[in-house]
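Task 17 of the worksheet. Students: predict the tertiary structure of the chain below and write it out as structure tokens. Keep your answer in the requested format; marks are given for formatting as well as content.
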Amino acid sequence: MKLVKGKSGLVIRLGAMVAALLLGQQAMAAGTRAGTDIENTASVDYFVGGVDQDDIPSNTVTFVVDRRVDFDLVAVGSALVEVAPGETNAWFDFLLTNDSNSDLDFTIDLAQLVGDLVRGVADDGTMATVDYAVNSVSENNQPGTPVDPARNGAQFVDELAADDSIRIRVFGDAAAAMINGQVAGVQLDATAGEPGTSGVEGIALVDTTDSDAGIDNVFADADNDGVESDVDGFIVTAAQLSVTKAYSVIDDGFGGTENPLPGAEVEYTITVTNATGAATADNVVITDTLDDDLAFLPDALVGGADMTLTVNGGAPTGCTEEAPDNDGCARSGQALTFNAVSIAADGSLVVTYRVTILDPAATP
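Model answer:
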């Protein structure tokens, strides 16, 4: 800055005035839009021999307000999103907020995590597919639940106004083979881009703090690169079923219970269990087909103790193989079906039925 020559006291006072003006202008610029031209001229008033002299103006100082690139990207919600194996179109949102003094474009990148932490839980699963869509309505203009965006792959955020926010919705399809408790995390990156042309993705901003021309970009993020990231994910809620089948000899035909001899009465037990903490398994169906050397006991076909169902630890109930009675049992030839049962977490379904081993000399 060029200063008017004069007494040292005048120079000091002039310097103090200019410094105060510049500091005041700097404080005001915090909310001033990038690209705004700021002009300022100082003046000196003085007396000589008690006579007021003409004011002396300084040169006019002009500068352009630079761009403070400041924005936040955070996962919305407080927990991982539950998803069932094979489920499609599960989703969660990230919220992108522009805290800059300029409109900004944003490039969006999405990637699945590999072995990282998501909300404090280890990532150990992989979704079949993940993609995202940018909400077409800003957060500020559409309070509450935003309009559901279409799932249509990569997009960018176009001309997000200063102090405005927008949601980015991440969609995921769970692989059918995923198991209960698996966590599949994703990372979303937002890179600040040059605004200016609606409908055209702006190029990534670069740090120009030391530039003397045009609008400088001054990044607020810790890495000084104009990129913000956050992670969120899905957690699989699934049934964990296991099934076992066992037999015991009720009567071997000779008063014993050891050997499965021809003519012996044998009881089969099928046990289906669901793990603790797993999701309820609905519409469980068990199918079992007898060997041709076995035949159902007559009592097993008319109900009673020879064919029972025990669901989730309740009392055993008798059932028949007659389909019209809707008791959960049906038979077609040598095939048995037990159906329409729900097994709760830590629950079980136990099926028992009795058969006889055919004597080769006997006619079935």
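Marker's comment: The first helix runs from residue 8 to 28. The helical segments are 8-28.
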